[in-house]
Write a sequence for this structure.
């Protein structure tokens, strides 16, 4: 039986997604082919329409349907706080807390020599310009606690250490609902070191 | 921050796929938006082109780029063996063994009252017509050993019991590389019952 080049191409498209291996990609491709043609057409149109409409905000570099984005152009948002995140999807995560009323800056990447992302990939020039323009009192580094996140936090704190800004980062520790037994030694040691009075 | 209806629609499209929950759907949607527009356009075009070109074979009901499909129209394939599978993707699995030279029939579903699939969803009329036309000596029921698979195997064997056909099914037991410790009691009991001389 000759395999279908079209099917193979569709499988490879799915295989490019993060966390989608070959087997899952095959399953997803078959789901597309086996379903209603109209659904697949809607899906294809939706992909096109979304990527055609999303653009990078010239101020915070987040991806949204406008430039400037809805957050940078919202007058009620507070310029005195700036939250630095890795990707736009994390803007949505922070927004979902319904807690933060400041603005954002999207780095696009963390420092990761192994993945080939150096300081020139972090749009730090745009970050410094934005800080000079908005003069935030606090910058919240909402980056993940990993080797890459720590390196990025360290680099940005060095970069901004001369400026009179309160630079903060999210606390690290045992997640709510987490078991001590399944907590990594590094996380446990960190939570121990940062223990606080009850 | 207003959420984007376009993004939400794309997330829901991904969420429809089997095994893709809301969180993963969000991750996949962001991957599309964050990547190259050209890649997303290629992906959308590939989906359209694939579903537009794939059609159901009028004989075996498999999805392929031709009707009749490459297997039904291949004269070297043996009409004396008919392998019954649930979905077209399983045709590819059997083909990948490079062992089987017979033909196929795709049921489309297993009997599953819970999921709303009854005997009218199994295209059994088409199956009986195909059997009358091709008169296979053996029918191999390559269906998964689950409640639904067993019910389907039982129903088909009842349906065909008057015909002079060698009706077989795949063996059940402990998979190669499997640990006895992690084998379910049902599988172990079945492997025990079907033990054979070495």
């Amino acid at each position: 039986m000759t395999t279908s080049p079209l099917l193979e191409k569709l499988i490879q498209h799915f295989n490019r997604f993060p966390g989608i291996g070959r087997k899952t990609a095959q399953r997803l491709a078959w789901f597309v082919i086996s379903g209603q043609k109209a659904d697949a057409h809607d899906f294809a149109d939706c992909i096109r329409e979304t990527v055609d409409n999303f653009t990078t905000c010239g101020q915070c570099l987040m991806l949204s349907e406008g430039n400037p984005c809805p957050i940078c152009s919202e007058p009620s948002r507070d310029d005195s706080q700036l939250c630095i995140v890795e990707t736009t999807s994390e803007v949505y995560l922070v927004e979902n807390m319904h807690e933060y009323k400041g603005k954002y800056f999207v780095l696009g990447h963390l420092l990761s020599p192994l993945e080939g992302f150096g300081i020139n990939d972090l749009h730090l020039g745009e970050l410094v310009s934005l800080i000079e323009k908005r003069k935030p009192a606090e910058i919240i580094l909402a980056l993940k606690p990993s080797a890459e996140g720590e390196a990025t936090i360290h680099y940005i704190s060095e970069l901004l250490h001369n400026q009179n800004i309160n630079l903060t980062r999210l606390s690290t520790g045992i997640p709510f609902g987490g078991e001590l037994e399944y907590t990594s030694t590094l996380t446990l040691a960190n939570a121990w070191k940062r223990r606080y009075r009850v």
In short: Chain B has two domains: 5-53, 63-197. Residues 63-197 of chain B form a domain with the Dna Topoisomerase Vi A Subunit; Chain: A, domain 2 fold (CATH 3.40.1360.10). Residues 31 and 85 of chain B are 34 Å apart (CA to CA).
